[in-house]
């Protein structure tokens, strides 16, 4: 018996881009003619097309923005790629042209960039099991990239996404920017009140979650002044890492892509939004090596970030208040919805109790 799954009308719902539109875009911005136009169906938030032209051996990627974000996401990615090219040696795509205005001739936001060599790490791991040396080689390369993000790119004294002028603005949910971690986490909790009140899918748990937010808002936080804000990718996992397997025992990172969630964020946030592949509880040895390699490069990890357990609880509390994956459902009456809502409420209530207990030992 197949298990029921929840289907969303996700970011790509209603978004399209035709070959004729691509022909026009490439002629306008590159003065070249397409001879290969191929859709990559992997992306969740965007439409991704691979393009070859008659005039050039360079391959291109055309990224069409999803429907949920206006202007912010496109400009954040473009500016991030510019900063990375200027300050680091991390292999990233080069932006050739872009539009963050949906009122353009195509009716969508888009970025045209160079295509990097290499194979998607997630796809590699689905086809084969990497040996110990191969995994360690990738981890070392990744640690080098993270260290450059943290120490080569100038730091900002605010939390948020990058704007086109290089300043820190709101995040992709149009919250912020923030000057302190406490503002950052409290605002995110408060912002979910609107979703709880307006989205009927949350009605069964709304009252209990609103009560939890009210209780959370009354808690006194310790100081987080020692928590640095660093340049972060925001979604740095196997699906966004390209690898060369020319030496199976020593694969190398050839590219890191999909920088739309990047910006200036507390260093702890990376461990909640990235690295799932490298922090697998079934790979304790690899997790230790990853932390060791980061710490060798002076990157803070969960082992060295002050009050990390409390920060982890804050994140777990906020992300379960009104889970995004329960919005815009095609099957909102599914029995799975109730199970997920009950699970979310349980996590929120138990985490709130954990936070209270942790605060008893962390308030200074």
Write the layout of secondary structure elements.
Layout: H1 19-30, E1 34-40, E2 46-53, E3 60-65, H2 72-87, E4 95-99, E5 110-114, E6 119-120, H3 121-127, H4 132-151, H5 181-198, H6 206-217, E7 229-232, E8 241-244, E9 252-256, E10 263-266, H7 270-273, H8 284-296, H9 308-319, H10 335-362
Antiparallel strand pairs: 1-2, 2-3, 3-5, 4-5, 6-8, 7-10, 8-9
Helix pairs in contact: 4-8, 5-6, 5-9, 6-10, 9-10
How would you describe this structure to a colleague?
Helix content is 39%, strand content 14%. It is of the alpha+beta class. A hairpin with a 6-residue loop joins strand 2 (46-53) and strand 3. Helix 4 (132-151) runs parallel beside helix 8 (284-296) and helix 5 (181-198) runs antiparallel to helix 6 (206-217). The longest helix has 28 residues, at 335-362. The model has no long low-confidence stretch (mean pLDDT 94).
